[in-house]
Each structure stands twice: as structure tokens, then as C-alpha cells.
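Why does residue order matter? Because the sequence determines the fold. Keep that principle in mind as you read this record.
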Amino acid sequence: MQPRAHSVPAVVQTSIPVAMWLAASLLVACGEPLVPGAGEDAPGTSRAALTELVVNGTFANGVTTPWWSGANTQSLVENGRLRVNVAGGTVNRWDALIGQDDIPLVSGRAYTLAFTASASANVPIRATVQIEPSPYTATLDQTVTLDGTARRFTFPFTSSLGTSLGQVTFQFGGSGAFTLYLDDITLTTETGSGPIALTSGFYVDPNSNPAVWVNNNGGDARAARIQAHIASKPGARWFGNWSGDIASAVSGFVSAADAADKLPVLVAYNIPGRDCGSHSSGGAGSPEAYRAWISSFVTGLGTRPAIVIIEPDAVAQLDCLPNDTERQTRLGLLRYATEQLRDRAPNTWAYLDGGNATWIAADTLAQRLESGGVRNIRGFSLNVSNYIPTAQSNTYGAAVSAALNTRYGYTKPWVVDTSRNGNGSNGEWCNPAGRKLGVTSQVGGGADLLLWIKVPGDSDGQCGIAPTVPAGTFSPDLAIRLIDGT
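Structure:
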């Protein structure tokens, strides 16, 4: 069984006490310039040999080669870093740029672009990893704002491109004349590590609710379609207080995936006060019980490759908790979970859930994610069990990552649940009609990963077009509606 549902309106206003609590948390959480991000210094990624793809990223030899400059830029090495004089009178970012060519990229492989930068004015710049020839398709495209303080920027990503003609660019046009400084530019890829590189695709759970229903109802006319469109596709398994011995349950799941050389996706869903008492209410009975549970969850993972989504809605639903003491307790539990995954699951990419693109302002979510420990792990997840289109979720994810960078000096990638967003959202969250399956699990897609996190066909609760089906219970009628988009 998988109890799971959203239980709040799509838009939640932050109360005054919460705002005061968030401001107080900022005083504790804010770091200094050059705080490391999620790349080579982040403890949440697996330690392994790194291959450096950029040549002369430190400018220690006093020359700019093989970096090239565009028509509206002039580059030279000054005091061991690259000085770029940017001309005024430009309109587009790409009107003034520098770059390096002949970067090999492998589709599906994890990379990290990092650099230290400052400028003589407050200006936005664009960093890309893309292909050299037209149409200059980018697998990484990030904009950051610089000022006179040198800061370290780190962007982990998974390449959607396979090419020997890759290119790193920094684009500065449209902001008038200024001087830019760049140093310690790296583009690294882990050699033989990371859960993507360690596996040969996503794991199809043979014991998912749809698969079990198909196996038990082979004579049903709907079974073949549900098998073809849902049960045979890779998706997540949810773990909570229904899972029994959690270390054994997790270990059995990841062991089966490891034996098949596939990458499993797991959801940890047992935070105290889960779902604010709505359709998927429950969770561990106390903070102490949760710490023991999540510690055992991580024990079950071990060193095997895995993707873990941490506590859907737990960050977004902070507002429903009655006071700041309980909010701080929840954030402490989430930090504990991220620390356990960081320290004891070296081949797991973990993502702290952030709700959906229509729920909380990006800047507010960034503050909550920081307080919940997102800097310890790979990134954050969006749209779990919801219907928001992928493009909208990606735009929001980029805004959240940019807010993390502005406030705390690091960026984070995100994953998007695409299990039911094929027709987008009609504004309802609980078993709405007219929704449709989205694209199946894959690397990239504008995010780190697109994943089927919610199990298609599992009810959100006794509501909508399934008023008698409890949360987490599989309904073949819901499944067929998602297949047909009705």
C-alpha cells in the first residue's frame, strides 16, 4: 500500500510567524562567499576519480589559450585569473562571450561545471555547456548574477547530449560595459561512479501495485493495456510505516534492482504528522522513532546505486504545523535524513521534496530547502503526485536553484514527477478527471531526471473520480483514465 495524496490548496500563503521563523533561520544558515556547492566539494555525491575536461581553467601559465573571445570581449590573464573586458552596446547575452571548444560529452553521464567569478558591476551572466554548431543545443544553461565579491558557482547536471563537439561558454551581452573576472573553471565527470553511471537504466518494480493487479487479473480486458502502459514502466516504490522492517524492505528492493543492473527509485514517506492529517496521514510516532526509521532506511541502501525522494510535501506543508517549535523539529528531522544519506549512502542521489510550481514562492522554498538540509544531497524534487507540466516545473526549479545561489552561494539540480502530467493540471489535486500519463522515466529532460514517482493508478484518496478508493490503493479505472487521458 502507498498512502499518498496532496492535502492543501495549490497556493499557500506564508503566515507571519512562519515568515519570522524563516528570517531567523536565515541568520543561522547564510554562509560566506565561496561556499562550495553540489559539485566536487559536495558531500552528498559519491567520491570517485574525476576527469577534467576543461583545459587551462586556472590560467596559471599566464595565457588564455585555448579559451577564445567573441567580437565584443577582450580577454587577458591578470593576477592569475582571466580578466574579460566586455563592451557595451550589445543586446543579447550571446553578443559578448568567451568559450572553449572540443569538449566531449556522453549522453546520460553526470557532469559538474564550476567556476569562480566576480564583476565590476551587478550584472547577470549566462553559463552553458552546449554543442558548437548550430542550433547550439545546450544541456546546461544557467544564469547567475555577479558583483564585486568573488563567488564559487557549481552546477551539477546530466548530459542530454552525446557529442565530441561540446562547448563551454560564458555569455555577457546586454548589460553595458563592465569588467569580469573568471578563475578555477572546471568541467568534471566522475569516472565509473554515480548511480546513473553504475547502472544500465531505471528499474521496473515487478511488485508494484499495477503489476500485482495485472498478475491477479489476467482475464480482465484492461489488464493488457495496464501492463503495456504502466506496469512495464520504471517507477518508484514508496516506503513508510506500512513497510515492516524498513532496513530489510529497502535492502530487498535495491538488491533486486542491483542484480538486474538497474537503478531503483525509492520514496521515504514517514515524517511525523505526514500529509497534515489528510488522506495520507500517519508517519512515525515521534521524532526519535523517525530518526531510527530513516537511519534503518539508509542502512538498507548500503553502497548500492539508488535514487531517493525524501518526504513528499514535508517542506511545503510546514505551514500546516501549529507552531514554530514543530516546524523546527520537522526541519531538524529532514536535515538528519539528508546527513544520513550523505554520510552512509555514497551511491545514492537523494532529492528533498519541494512541492510543486504553483504552491510556494521560489525564494521561500529555497529558504526552506536550505533549512531542511538540501545542501547535503544531490538536489530537490518537484511535482510529486501532481500534474503541473514539465516545462513549468523546470522553470520553477531553475528559479529555486537561482534563489539558493543568491542566498547561500550554491545551486542544486531537481527532478520532476512526470507520472501524471501528460495533460497538465486543471487546478485540482485529488483524483481529477482528464489527466494523462506523462513521459516515462529518463535522464535529462530539462531537469536532472524525469521520473514516475507517483504510481499511476494509485488513488490520491477517497475523492474526485475515485470517491471510494483509499489513498495508495490501485484502481484499474483510474489507470485506464490516465492511459486514455479521460
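The domain at 16-32+195-484 is CATH 3.20.20.40 (TIM Barrel).
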